[in-house]
Task: inverse folding
């Protein structure tokens, strides 16, 4: 199985431009036979809390995202993109998950970073999804720092743990250490998909990474360029491609 983390430089609040950029990276992933590609936190809008209300989607089947379902169905690839969504309590930081010929799912950030509650509400995590006899669990940014979150993923049988994040230049090394520890503690292949460039008030760090089940760093993108990083779970081969 080939698992892919994407690294993107978001256009502030421009969903259409970000979709086109995502599609370029998805095509590279498909050409390298990836089974799944996951994008960073709020990848389709950028991390712009004050704009979330005007950028959100209120229905999971919103037509603005149809291209991702079409690509998923045609190329048999799972795609996870970051987008603000709305539930009965308010706005969530979410990942929309597209699976071939299946109903779309929403993974919403359950554990908010201090300060995010001004704009967002806690959402609901979906259970790990299954692909090629592997269970894949997700996390969105701050959730990686909550012990119960990774423990729950492990208890739910996850083999693979993918964190969709915004990590700043100042904070990235702490998160790299933390996800490495998660990988080692629970013997889960782990990935981090991060933004690069500027988003909101943050200088994003890039360095999207992959760790093996022993917590050893297997590969990492640089700090500035958009691209993808893939691990083949059968032979541990790492592929890195930049736009």
Result:
């Amino acid at each position: 199985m080939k698992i892919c983390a994407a690294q993107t430089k978001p256009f502030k609040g421009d969903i259409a431009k970000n979709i086109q950029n995502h599609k370029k990276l998805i095509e590279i992933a498909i050409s390298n036979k990836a089974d799944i590609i996951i994008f960073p936190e709020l990848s389709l809008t950028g991390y712009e809390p004050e704009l979330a209300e005007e950028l959100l989607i209120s229905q999971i089947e919103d037509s603005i995202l149809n291209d991702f379902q079409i690509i998923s169905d045609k190329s048999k690839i799972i795609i996870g993109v970051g987008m603000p969504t709305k539930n009965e309590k308010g706005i969530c930081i979410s990942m929309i998950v597209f699976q071939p010929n299946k109903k779309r799912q929403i993974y919403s950030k359950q554990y908010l970073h201090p300060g995010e509650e001004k704009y967002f509400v806690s959402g609901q995590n979906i259970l790990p999804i299954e692909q090629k006899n592997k269970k894949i669990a997700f996390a969105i940014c701050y959730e990686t720092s909550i012990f119960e979150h990774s423990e729950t993923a492990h208890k739910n049988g996850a083999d693979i743990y993918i964190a969709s994040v915004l990590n700043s230049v100042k904070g990235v090394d702490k998160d790299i250490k933390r996800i490495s520890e998660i990988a080692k503690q629970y013997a889960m292949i782990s990935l981090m998909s991060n933004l690069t460039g500027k988003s909101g008030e943050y200088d994003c760090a890039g360095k999207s990474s992959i760790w093996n089940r022993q917590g050893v760093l297997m590969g990492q993108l640089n700090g500035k360029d958009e691209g993808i990083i893939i691990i083949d779970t059968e032979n541990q081969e790492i592929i890195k491609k930049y736009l």
Notes: The chain has a mean pLDDT of 97.
